[in-house]
Amino acid sequence: MSSTHDVESHLTLVRQRIANAEVAAGRSPGSVQLLAVSKTKPAADIAAAHDAGQRAFGENYLGEAIEKMEQLSDRECQWHYIGAIQSNKTRPIAAHFDWVHCVDRDKIATRLNDHRAAAAEPLNVCIQVNIDREPSKAGATPEECSALATLISGLPRLRLRGLMAIPLATDDTARQRQSTAALKRIFDSLKADHPSLDTLSIGMSGDLEAAVAEGSTMVRIGTAVFGARAPKQH
Questions:
Q1: Which candidate, 226, 232, 231, places its Cα nearest to that of 44?
Q2: Which of 51, 103, 154, 203 has CA atoms 20 to 30 A from the CA of 226?
Q3: Domains of the chain
Q4: How far apart are CA 37 and CA 44, in angstroms?
Q5: Of 127, 178, 131, nearest in space to 153 by CA
Q6: What's the pTM?
Protein backbone atom coordinates (compact mmCIF):
# COMPACT_ATOMS: atom_id res chain seq x y z
CA MET A 1 0.00 0.00 0.00
CA SER A 2 1.22 3.47 -0.87
CA SER A 3 1.36 6.10 1.83
CA THR A 4 -0.96 9.10 1.60
CA HIS A 5 2.06 11.32 1.01
CA ASP A 6 3.32 9.06 -1.81
CA VAL A 7 0.02 9.14 -3.66
CA GLU A 8 -0.29 12.90 -3.28
CA SER A 9 3.26 13.54 -4.48
CA HIS A 10 2.90 11.10 -7.37
CA LEU A 11 -0.34 12.78 -8.44
CA THR A 12 1.39 16.16 -8.40
CA LEU A 13 4.13 14.84 -10.67
CA VAL A 14 1.68 13.21 -13.10
CA ARG A 15 -0.46 16.33 -13.27
CA GLN A 16 2.63 18.41 -14.00
CA ARG A 17 3.63 16.00 -16.73
CA ILE A 18 0.18 16.33 -18.32
CA ALA A 19 0.35 20.12 -18.04
CA ASN A 20 3.78 20.16 -19.67
CA ALA A 21 2.50 17.96 -22.49
CA GLU A 22 -0.45 20.31 -23.04
CA VAL A 23 1.88 23.29 -23.31
CA ALA A 24 4.25 21.45 -25.67
CA ALA A 25 1.32 20.50 -27.91
CA GLY A 26 -0.24 23.96 -27.86
CA ARG A 27 -3.28 22.57 -26.07
CA SER A 28 -5.45 24.53 -23.63
CA PRO A 29 -4.60 24.02 -19.95
CA GLY A 30 -6.89 21.41 -18.46
CA SER A 31 -7.91 19.94 -21.82
CA VAL A 32 -6.57 16.49 -20.87
CA GLN A 33 -8.22 14.61 -18.01
CA LEU A 34 -6.35 12.17 -15.78
CA LEU A 35 -8.01 8.81 -15.23
CA ALA A 36 -6.19 7.21 -12.28
CA VAL A 37 -6.07 3.46 -12.90
CA SER A 38 -6.65 1.96 -9.48
CA LYS A 39 -7.01 -1.72 -10.33
CA THR A 40 -5.42 -4.02 -7.70
CA LYS A 41 -4.88 -1.03 -5.40
CA PRO A 42 -6.67 -0.85 -2.02
CA ALA A 43 -9.48 1.53 -1.18
CA ALA A 44 -7.12 3.43 1.14
CA ASP A 45 -4.96 4.44 -1.83
CA ILE A 46 -8.00 5.64 -3.76
CA ALA A 47 -9.09 7.61 -0.68
CA ALA A 48 -5.66 9.24 -0.56
CA ALA A 49 -5.93 10.20 -4.23
CA HIS A 50 -9.42 11.54 -3.61
CA ASP A 51 -8.09 13.63 -0.74
CA ALA A 52 -5.59 15.07 -3.22
CA GLY A 53 -8.36 16.08 -5.59
CA GLN A 54 -8.58 13.11 -7.95
CA ARG A 55 -12.14 12.03 -8.82
CA ALA A 56 -11.99 9.67 -11.82
CA PHE A 57 -10.77 6.11 -11.23
CA GLY A 58 -10.35 3.22 -13.67
CA GLU A 59 -10.99 -0.40 -12.72
CA ASN A 60 -10.55 -3.67 -14.63
CA TYR A 61 -11.79 -6.32 -12.21
CA LEU A 62 -15.48 -6.25 -11.47
CA GLY A 63 -15.68 -7.91 -8.05
CA GLU A 64 -12.73 -5.97 -6.70
CA ALA A 65 -14.14 -2.71 -8.04
CA ILE A 66 -17.59 -3.17 -6.50
CA GLU A 67 -16.02 -3.94 -3.13
CA LYS A 68 -14.02 -0.72 -3.28
CA MET A 69 -17.07 1.27 -4.36
CA GLU A 70 -18.87 0.06 -1.24
CA GLN A 71 -15.91 0.98 0.96
CA LEU A 72 -15.76 4.46 -0.58
CA SER A 73 -19.49 5.08 -0.86
CA ASP A 74 -19.22 8.25 1.23
CA ARG A 75 -16.98 9.86 -1.40
CA GLU A 76 -17.92 11.29 -4.75
CA CYS A 77 -15.90 9.19 -7.16
CA GLN A 78 -16.43 8.73 -10.89
CA TRP A 79 -15.93 5.05 -11.74
CA HIS A 80 -14.70 3.97 -15.18
CA TYR A 81 -14.70 0.34 -16.30
CA ILE A 82 -11.67 -0.19 -18.53
CA GLY A 83 -11.36 -3.99 -18.65
CA ALA A 84 -12.59 -6.56 -21.13
CA ILE A 85 -16.35 -7.13 -20.96
CA GLN A 86 -17.85 -10.60 -20.96
CA SER A 87 -21.56 -10.82 -21.78
CA ASN A 88 -22.41 -12.21 -18.35
CA LYS A 89 -20.84 -9.16 -16.66
CA THR A 90 -22.89 -6.48 -18.42
CA ARG A 91 -25.60 -6.31 -15.75
CA PRO A 92 -23.32 -5.41 -12.79
CA ILE A 93 -21.16 -3.15 -14.96
CA ALA A 94 -24.23 -1.23 -16.11
CA ALA A 95 -25.46 -0.97 -12.52
CA HIS A 96 -22.27 0.25 -10.84
CA PHE A 97 -20.16 2.28 -13.26
CA ASP A 98 -20.41 5.81 -14.63
CA TRP A 99 -18.30 5.13 -17.72
CA VAL A 100 -17.38 2.09 -19.81
CA HIS A 101 -14.38 2.45 -22.11
CA CYS A 102 -14.37 -0.91 -23.84
CA VAL A 103 -17.54 -1.35 -25.89
CA ASP A 104 -16.41 -3.13 -29.03
CA ARG A 105 -19.46 -4.91 -30.44
CA ASP A 106 -23.22 -4.59 -30.82
CA LYS A 107 -24.10 -7.30 -28.31
CA ILE A 108 -22.22 -5.63 -25.46
CA ALA A 109 -23.70 -2.21 -26.21
CA THR A 110 -27.23 -3.59 -26.34
CA ARG A 111 -26.85 -5.55 -23.11
CA LEU A 112 -25.39 -2.56 -21.25
CA ASN A 113 -28.34 -0.47 -22.40
CA ASP A 114 -30.86 -3.12 -21.38
CA HIS A 115 -29.32 -3.49 -17.91
CA ARG A 116 -28.93 0.23 -17.16
CA ALA A 117 -31.67 1.41 -14.81
CA ALA A 118 -34.14 3.74 -16.51
CA ALA A 119 -33.94 6.12 -13.55
CA ALA A 120 -30.14 6.34 -13.73
CA GLU A 121 -28.15 8.80 -15.79
CA PRO A 122 -27.25 7.31 -19.19
CA LEU A 123 -24.06 5.25 -19.07
CA ASN A 124 -21.16 7.08 -20.72
CA VAL A 125 -19.44 4.79 -23.22
CA CYS A 126 -16.40 4.80 -25.45
CA ILE A 127 -15.93 2.47 -28.38
CA GLN A 128 -12.73 0.47 -27.99
CA VAL A 129 -10.83 0.47 -31.27
CA ASN A 130 -8.07 -1.98 -32.15
CA ILE A 131 -6.24 0.88 -33.79
CA ASP A 132 -3.09 -1.05 -34.68
CA ARG A 133 -5.00 -4.21 -35.69
CA GLU A 134 -3.16 -6.41 -33.22
CA PRO A 135 -4.51 -9.99 -33.18
CA SER A 136 -4.00 -10.24 -29.41
CA LYS A 137 -6.12 -7.17 -28.58
CA ALA A 138 -9.85 -6.61 -28.31
CA GLY A 139 -11.57 -3.75 -30.04
CA ALA A 140 -13.63 -2.89 -33.07
CA THR A 141 -11.76 -2.46 -36.33
CA PRO A 142 -11.59 1.09 -37.67
CA GLU A 143 -14.09 0.06 -40.36
CA GLU A 144 -16.62 -1.14 -37.77
CA CYS A 145 -16.70 2.09 -35.76
CA SER A 146 -19.29 3.99 -37.77
CA ALA A 147 -21.98 1.31 -37.56
CA LEU A 148 -21.29 0.71 -33.87
CA ALA A 149 -21.46 4.44 -33.12
CA THR A 150 -24.82 4.65 -34.90
CA LEU A 151 -26.16 1.71 -32.90
CA ILE A 152 -25.00 3.17 -29.56
CA SER A 153 -26.44 6.58 -30.39
CA GLY A 154 -29.85 4.97 -30.79
CA LEU A 155 -29.79 3.31 -27.37
CA PRO A 156 -31.54 5.56 -24.84
CA ARG A 157 -29.66 4.46 -21.72
CA LEU A 158 -26.20 4.92 -23.23
CA ARG A 159 -24.40 8.14 -24.08
CA LEU A 160 -21.70 7.84 -26.73
CA ARG A 161 -18.74 9.90 -25.54
CA GLY A 162 -15.81 8.85 -27.70
CA LEU A 163 -13.16 6.33 -28.59
CA MET A 164 -10.62 4.36 -26.57
CA ALA A 165 -7.53 2.47 -27.70
CA ILE A 166 -4.57 0.61 -26.26
CA PRO A 167 -1.93 1.29 -28.91
CA LEU A 168 0.98 -0.85 -29.94
CA ALA A 169 3.59 -0.94 -27.18
CA THR A 170 6.69 0.87 -28.44
CA ASP A 171 9.27 3.39 -27.26
CA ASP A 172 9.33 5.01 -30.70
CA THR A 173 7.68 8.41 -30.23
CA ALA A 174 6.82 8.77 -33.91
CA ARG A 175 5.12 5.37 -33.87
CA GLN A 176 3.25 6.30 -30.69
CA ARG A 177 1.97 9.46 -32.31
CA GLN A 178 0.90 7.51 -35.38
CA SER A 179 -1.53 5.39 -33.34
CA THR A 180 -3.17 8.36 -31.65
CA ALA A 181 -3.35 10.30 -34.91
CA ALA A 182 -5.14 7.37 -36.55
CA LEU A 183 -7.65 7.21 -33.69
CA LYS A 184 -8.18 11.00 -33.90
CA ARG A 185 -9.00 10.73 -37.62
CA ILE A 186 -11.74 8.20 -36.85
CA PHE A 187 -12.99 10.43 -34.03
CA ASP A 188 -13.16 13.46 -36.32
CA SER A 189 -15.00 11.52 -39.02
CA LEU A 190 -17.60 10.28 -36.54
CA LYS A 191 -18.14 13.61 -34.80
CA ALA A 192 -20.01 15.12 -37.75
CA ASP A 193 -22.84 12.62 -37.23
CA HIS A 194 -22.37 12.19 -33.48
CA PRO A 195 -21.81 15.63 -31.93
CA SER A 196 -21.83 14.19 -28.39
CA LEU A 197 -18.32 12.82 -28.98
CA ASP A 198 -15.86 14.65 -26.75
CA THR A 199 -13.49 12.00 -25.42
CA LEU A 200 -10.37 10.41 -26.89
CA SER A 201 -9.18 7.93 -24.26
CA ILE A 202 -5.63 7.03 -25.20
CA GLY A 203 -2.24 7.45 -23.59
CA MET A 204 -0.59 5.75 -20.62
CA SER A 205 2.63 6.27 -18.70
CA GLY A 206 4.90 5.35 -21.61
CA ASP A 207 3.21 7.36 -24.35
CA LEU A 208 1.42 10.19 -22.54
CA GLU A 209 3.25 13.01 -24.35
CA ALA A 210 2.75 11.51 -27.80
CA ALA A 211 -0.95 10.94 -27.11
CA VAL A 212 -1.51 14.50 -25.89
CA ALA A 213 0.37 15.86 -28.91
CA GLU A 214 -2.08 14.12 -31.23
CA GLY A 215 -5.31 15.02 -29.43
CA SER A 216 -5.94 12.70 -26.49
CA THR A 217 -8.41 14.14 -23.99
CA MET A 218 -8.06 11.44 -21.32
CA VAL A 219 -4.92 9.58 -20.27
CA ARG A 220 -5.06 6.42 -18.17
CA ILE A 221 -2.24 6.36 -15.60
CA GLY A 222 -1.79 3.71 -12.91
CA THR A 223 1.69 2.90 -11.65
CA ALA A 224 2.93 6.49 -11.83
CA VAL A 225 0.11 7.46 -9.44
CA PHE A 226 -0.19 4.48 -7.12
CA GLY A 227 3.15 2.70 -7.45
CA ALA A 228 3.75 -0.84 -8.68
CA ARG A 229 0.65 -2.98 -8.72
CA ALA A 230 0.23 -5.91 -6.40
CA PRO A 231 -0.62 -9.25 -8.03
CA LYS A 232 -4.36 -9.68 -8.54
CA GLN A 233 -5.91 -11.80 -5.81
CA HIS A 234 -8.04 -14.63 -7.14
A1: 226
A2: 103
A3: 4-226 (3.20.20.10)
A4: 14
A5: 127
A6: 0.94
